[in-house]
């Protein structure tokens, strides 16, 4: 995996290390499976969702390709709705919602915001792919490991949405010209 995109995933999710595994989903699941905790899940989901909202807002402004812009608009609308569910879980588990990206995440966000044209579109799609792979992994883990009905319902409701974003980003990326 490209180091830049691995750094994005790590920074936005607040992870300090990742177990060696075959895929990003396995890496994320291995890290989280050690000791699943609903509060930690909520923190991770909130941090990742904040990244998705900020990145989508940026892409709405900077995307050159109309499909990338459309994905960003959809991603933004759906992640704003996801925020409501995360806020409810955060209240239940006493988790403070993040208002800023982690320092490394902010640095990577600034790098993304300095790109233009096709380079921006491709980099944005890569961030969507990596962050949504992580999101799918943590929601799958929550669905299988949580004993809390609200956490399970949240995961079950949002997994199809996140998988849809992931699939759409992968498909659009295949159609963009290489740099």
Automatic annotation (TrEMBL):
The keyword Ion transport does not apply. Keywords: Signal. The keyword Signal applies. Pfam families: DUF4142 (PF13628). Residues 1-21 form the signal peptide. Transmembrane segments: none annotated. InterPro entries: DUF4142, Ferritin-like. Residues 37-172 form the DUF4142 domain. PANTHER family: BLR2558 PROTEIN (PTHR38593:SF1). This is DUF4142 domain-containing protein.
């Amino acid at each position: 995996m490209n180091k830049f995109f691995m750094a994005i995933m790590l920074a936005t999710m607040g992870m300090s290390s990742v177990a060696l595994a075959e895929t990003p989903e396995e890496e994320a699941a291995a890290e989280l499976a050690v000791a699943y905790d609903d509060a930690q899940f909520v923190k991770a989901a909130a941090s990742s969702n904040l990244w998705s909202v900020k990145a989508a807002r940026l892409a709405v402004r900077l995307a050159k390709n109309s499909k990338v812009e459309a994905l960003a608009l959809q991603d933004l609308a759906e992640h704003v709705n996801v925020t409501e569910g995360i806020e409810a879980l955060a209240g239940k588990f006493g988790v403070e919602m993040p208002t800023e990206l982690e320092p490394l995440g902010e640095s990577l966000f600034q790098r993304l915001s300095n790109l233009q044209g096709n380079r921006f579109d491709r980099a944005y799609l890569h961030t969507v792919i990596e962050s949504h792979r992580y999101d799918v992994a943590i929601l799958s883990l929550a669905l299988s490991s949580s004993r809390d009905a609200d956490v399970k319902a949240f995961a079950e409701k949002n997994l199809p949405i996140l998988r849809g974003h992931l699939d759409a980003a992968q498909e659009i990326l295949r159609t963009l010209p290489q740099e």
